[in-house]
Amino acid sequence: MALVDEELLERPPDDRRLPRVTPHRTGEIVGHLRSPKTLWCPGCSNGIVTRALIDAVLALDLDPDRTCVIAGIGCAGRITAYLNWSTVHTAHGRALAVATGAKAADPGLHVIVIMGDGDCVAIGGNHLIHAARRNIDVTALVFNNSIYGMTGGQMSPTTFEGDRSTTSVYGNVEQAFDICELARAAGATYVARGTPYAYTRLSQLIAGGIAHKGFAFVEAMVSCPTYYGRQNGIPKASDMMKRQQERSVPVEKFDLDGPRLHDRYPVGVLHHTEREEYTAAYADVVRRAQERPGG
């Protein structure tokens, strides 16, 4: 399966243009945080993605009272303690299940789901494929640092083959998931990948996912110098950010025949299509049932 939607690249429809996002001043950003201080390690780029999310929400002028952020367990899951919105901190791997319930109960909510790579595609992998299959209108934003950061640097489903972790000290022998391809194959109707290095573009991709009516999946390739970096010879956060610059290739210029993910990977909107959203389809079933004689 190709990494990108070739038809989209040939004829991008006008209604699929990304929203315009102008970065806001730090004072405005801080106004949407419970505290400007976090427990994330120095050099971790989770804070950059968090700011990009706030910029995206502000650009879309979402009603804070109708915006809900749901997160699982892990480094990324700490975001629920920092955002000054309605937030839910769920069990490990269950963020999408809780988000599905929230959206089904109140389809008017803007539901944003924050997960790490392990939270999303290890214990939470089953929830991911079914949320994508249903095409429920939530935005899944995955902070992918290719390792389990909160629990000690173990390998995750996105740790690259040959990379070291505390549970693969001689190199990982397993192939890494391409989680964007997994989401697309499962039925996600908006799939995008961005990096903290390209901040404005990342904000646009997140905003595009939130604005999309259906299941949106956005992967942010974040850096973890504390565990992934130190164990793989890149202990400096600046060097990890430089690697993002060097290895990320705009999807329009990406050579599908070359190596993928570890040494180079496409960034941008990888897939975008339209089909009926789950809560709308379910509401139609309810309406038809009520209209039946004796219903």
Structure description:
With 295 residues, the chain is an alpha/beta fold. Helices cover 35% and strands 15% of the residues. It has 11 helices and 8 strands. It has helices at 6-10, 26-30, 46-59, 95-105, 117-121, 125-134, 179-186, 199-211, 225-231, 237-247, 278-291; strands at residues 67-71, 86-89, 110-116, 139-144, 190-194, 216-221, 248-250, 265-272. The radius of gyration is 19 Å and the shape is globular. The N and C termini lie far apart (45 Å). Mean pLDDT is 91; it is low at 1-15.
Question: What is the fold's blueprint, element by element?
Answer:
Elements lengths: L5 H5 L15 H5 L15 H14 L7 E5 L14 E4 L5 H11 L4 E7 H5 L3 H10 L4 E6 L34 H8 L3 E5 L4 H13 L4 E6 L3 H7 L5 H11 E3 L14 E8 L5 H14 L4
Parallel strand pairs: 1-2, 1-3, 3-4, 4-6, 5-6, 7-8
Antiparallel strand pairs: 5-8
Q: What tags apply to this protein structure?
A:
single chain, 8-stranded mixed β-sheet, 295 residues, disordered N terminus, 11 helices
Q: Determine the number of helices (DSSP H or I, runs of at least 4 residues).
A: 11
For the secondary structure, the number of strands is 8
Largest sheet: 8 strands, mixed
Rg, rounded, reads 19 Å
Low-confidence stretches: 1-15
> What is the mean pLDDT?
91
**SSE string, helices as H and strands as E:** HHHEEHEHHEHEHEHHEEH
SSE class: alpha/beta
What is the overall silhouette?
globular
Q: Classify the helix fraction into a percent range.
A: 25-40%
Strand order of the largest sheet: 2-1-3-4-6-5-8-7
What is the strand content? 5-15%
Q: Give the termini separation.
A: 45 Å
